[in-house]
C-alpha cells in the first residue's frame, strides 16, 4: 500500500447530510467528512447556535447548517430537497439524530407518552431520513450510502430503559429491510452500534460528567487501555460512508471494545 493510498481523501467531492450534527457523534463525523474531502456537509439539527458553530468551525465553503426536526416529515423532505437543489445531488445520509430515555422505563411502569416521544425521534425520524434520502438518490441515479446510528442496545435487552432498547432494535430492523429494498438501486444502508460514549447528551441524562461516564463504562469493555471517544465512532461511520465499504450492505458495525454485560 502506497503512502498516497494511505492518505487518500475518502469522500472527495461527495455531498453529505448529518442529522444530529450539532454535537457529539454527529459533530465529530461532520468534521471528519469535511477532512476527507466532502465538498459540502449539511449539519441538520434543532440546536441552532451549536449547529452554526459547527458549520463555521468546518468552514462555510464546505459546510452549512439547516434547522431540521426529524419528527416532522415535511421538514426532512424540505431539507433533502433544499440540499439537492443547492448542491446537485445527495451522496451520503448519516441519520444520527436520536435521544436517550430519561425515565427508568420498565414494562410494568411503561410511560407510553414518553415512549411515543422517544420513538418519534429514534424510530420514525430515522425512517423518514432514510426514506427521503433514498428517494433523492434514486431520482438522481446516485449510488449512495446511508448510515444510521443504532446502539449495542439493538442486540440485547435490559432491566430498564425499555423504550430506548426497543427503539434501537427497530433501527436495526429498518436497516436490514431498507438495505434489501434499496440494494437494487445501488444504494447501501448500514448502521453503527457503539457502547456508551461520554457525549453531552449522555452526561446530561446520566447526571455525571464525562470522566464519571467513562469510568462507569470501563469495566464493561474487554478491550483495556482504550476509552471510547466520538472519534472512534466517526471513523467507523466514515468507513461505511466511503467506497472502502463498497460491498457492505445491511451491516451493523459494532464499536464497543468487546462490551460484556
UniProtKB/TrEMBL annotation:
A Pfam family that the UniProt record links to this protein: adh_short_C2
InterPro entries: NAD(P)-bd_dom_sf (IPR036291), SDR_fam (IPR002347)
Annotated TM spans: none
Family to which this protein belongs: Belongs to the short-chain dehydrogenases/reductases (SDR) family.
Name of this chain's protein: Uncharacterized protein
Species name: Carya illinoinensis (Pecan)
Amino acid at each position: 500500500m502506497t503512502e498516497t493510498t494511505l492518505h487518500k481523501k475518502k469522500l472527495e467531492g461527495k455531498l453529505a447530510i448529518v442529522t444530529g450534527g450539532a454535537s457529539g457523534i454527529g459533530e465529530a463525523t461532520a468534521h471528519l467528512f469535511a477532512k476527507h474531502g466532502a465538498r459540502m456537509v449539511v449539519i441538520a439539527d434543532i440546536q441552532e447556535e451549536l449547529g452554526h458553530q459547527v458549520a463555521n468551525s468546518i468552514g462555510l465553503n464546505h459546510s452549512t447548517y439547516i434547522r431540521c426536526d426529524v419528527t416532522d416529515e415535511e421538514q426532512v423532505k424540505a431539507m433533502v430537497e433544499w440540499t439537492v437543489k443547492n448542491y446537485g445531488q445527495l451522496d451520503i445520509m448519516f441519520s444520527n439524530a436520536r435521544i436517550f430515555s430519561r425515565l427508568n422505563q420498565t414494562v410494568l411502569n411503561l410511560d407510553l407518552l414518553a415512549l411515543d416521544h422517544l420513538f418519534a425521534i429514534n424510530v420514525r425520524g430515522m425512517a423518514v431520513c432514510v426514506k427521503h434520502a433514498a428517494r433523492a438518490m434514486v431520482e438522481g441515479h446516485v449510488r449512495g450510502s446511508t448510515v444510521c446510528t443504532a446502539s449495542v442496545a439493538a442486540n440485547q435487552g435490559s432491566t430498564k430503559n425499555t423504550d430506548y432498547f426497543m427503539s434501537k432494535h427497530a433501527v436495526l430492523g429498518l436497516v436490514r429491510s431498507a438495505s434489501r429494498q434499496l440494494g437494487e438501486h445501488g444504494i447501501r444502508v448500514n448502521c453503527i452500534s457503539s457502547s456508551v460514549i461520554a457525549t453531552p447528551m449522555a452526561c446530561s441524562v446520566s447526571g455525571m460528567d464525562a470522566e464519571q461516564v467513562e469510568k462507569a463504562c470501563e469495566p464493561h469493555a474487554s478491550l483495556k487501555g482504550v476509552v471510547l471517544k466520538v472519534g472512534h465512532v466517526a471513523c467507523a461511520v466514515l468507513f461505511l460512508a466511503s467506497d472502502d465499504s463498497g460491498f457492505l450492505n445491511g451491516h451493523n458495525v459494532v464499536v464497543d471494545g468487546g462490551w460484556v454485560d
